[in-house]
């Protein structure tokens, strides 16, 4: 392993300890909610259990806005995320990443606005392999680009601004939720919308606690929103939010033309 990549054990030893911290969304007190093994992945939901690492990751939950998060990854570099999370084994814990998810979302977008495709200028923010943007271009969307810091092909932010920015299963990966949403909104036109997919905590989160399948350090799921915390960070950027399904949210400053009869 190259010298600039700290081992998982080193990273764990350098994590800030404590029974409480301050919420990354609203600054209120966030007591310890529970600890899970680093290897806990979303695929436990489907019966795949990775051998435990012995390294425990603490999660905290805000008493005011309900944001559920860890600070375990706050001091990690991008290279360390690539070495320990977004590595060659990542596909095993997120099998829908490469194809199923981009294909499904491309279909939803093209089915949702069939008469407006030639007017849509889209950015897929945190767009992985670039597949969603590729499918949108093939469906007749005027412009569709990808930004993805972990993929050298898409590491620089495309020029210009956009009237549709998709952010599909990305927010839960961001160690700094406020800074993340600030960058997400920056290339959005005044009349444009964010299409966000991130699963909100279920109503019984206080019963199931860290047993919730979506709370999964091995997947890099480190920032888990409540409706309140997501609305708060979006409102901080002047955006109004509308949740369509527990994992699908639209947000805008001014409703764009393609959402006018739906908003
Ligand atoms: Zn909070």
- In percent terms, what proportion of residues is strand? 15-25%
- What are the bound molecules? zinc ion
Strand order of the largest sheet: 6-5-7-8-11-10
Q: How helix-rich are the residues, as a percent range?
A: 10-25%
- Major sheet summary line: 6 strands, mixed
Number of strands: 11
Report on the architecture of this protein.
The chain contains eight helices and eleven strands. By secondary structure, it is of the alpha/beta class. It is globular, with a radius of gyration of 18 Å. The chain starts with 7 loop residues before the first helix and ends in an 11-residue tail after the last strand. The mean pLDDT is 95. The structure holds zinc ion.
Can you give keywords for this protein?
alpha/beta, five-stranded antiparallel sheet, 11 strands, 23% helix, globular, binds zinc ion
List the helices and strands and how they pair.
Blueprint: H1 8-13, E1 20-22, E2 29-37, E3 56-61, E4 68-69, H2 78-84, H3 90-93, H4 100-112, E5 121-125, H5 131-138, E6 143-147, E7 162-168, H6 177-185, E8 188-197, H7 205-208, E9 223-224, H8 227-235, E10 240-245, E11 248-252
Parallel strand pairs: 5-6, 5-7, 7-8
Antiparallel strand pairs: 1-2, 2-3, 3-4, 4-9, 8-11, 10-11
The protein binds zinc ion (ZN).
At a glance:
The chain is built from eight helices and eleven strands.
């Amino acid at each position: 392993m190259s010298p600039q990549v700290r081992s998982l054990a080193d990273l764990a030893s350098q994590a800030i300890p404590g029974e409480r911290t301050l919420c990354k969304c609203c600054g209120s007190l966030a007591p310890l909610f529970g600890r899970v093994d680093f290897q806990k992945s979303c695929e436990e939901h489907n019966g795949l259990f990775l051998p435990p690492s012995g390294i425990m990751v603490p999660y905290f939950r805000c008493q005011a806005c309900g944001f559920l998060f860890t600070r375990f990854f706050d001091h990690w570099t991008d290279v360390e995320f690539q070495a320990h999370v977004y590595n060659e084994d990542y596909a095993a814990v997120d099998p829908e990443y490469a194809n199923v998810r981009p294909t499904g979302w491309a279909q939803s977008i093209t089915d949702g606005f069939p008469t407006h495709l030639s007017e849509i200028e889209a950015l897929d923010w945190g767009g992985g392999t670039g597949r969603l943007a590729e499918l949108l271009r093939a469906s007749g969307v005027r412009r569709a680009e990808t930004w993805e810091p972990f993929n050298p092909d898409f590491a620089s932010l495309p020029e210009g601004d956009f009237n549709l920015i998709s952010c599909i299963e990305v927010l839960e990966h961001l160690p700094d939720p406020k800074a993340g949403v600030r960058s997400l909104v920056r290339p959005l036109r005044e009349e444009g919308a964010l299409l966000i997919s991130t699963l909100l905590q279920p109503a019984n989160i206080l019963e199931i606690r860290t047993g919730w399948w979506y709370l999964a350090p091995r997947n890099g799921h480190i920032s888990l929103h409540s409706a309140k915390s997501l609305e708060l960070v979006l409102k901080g950027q002047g955006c109004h939010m509308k949740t369509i399904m527990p994992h699908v949210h639209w947000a805008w400053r001014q409703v764009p033309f393609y959402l006018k009869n739906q908003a």
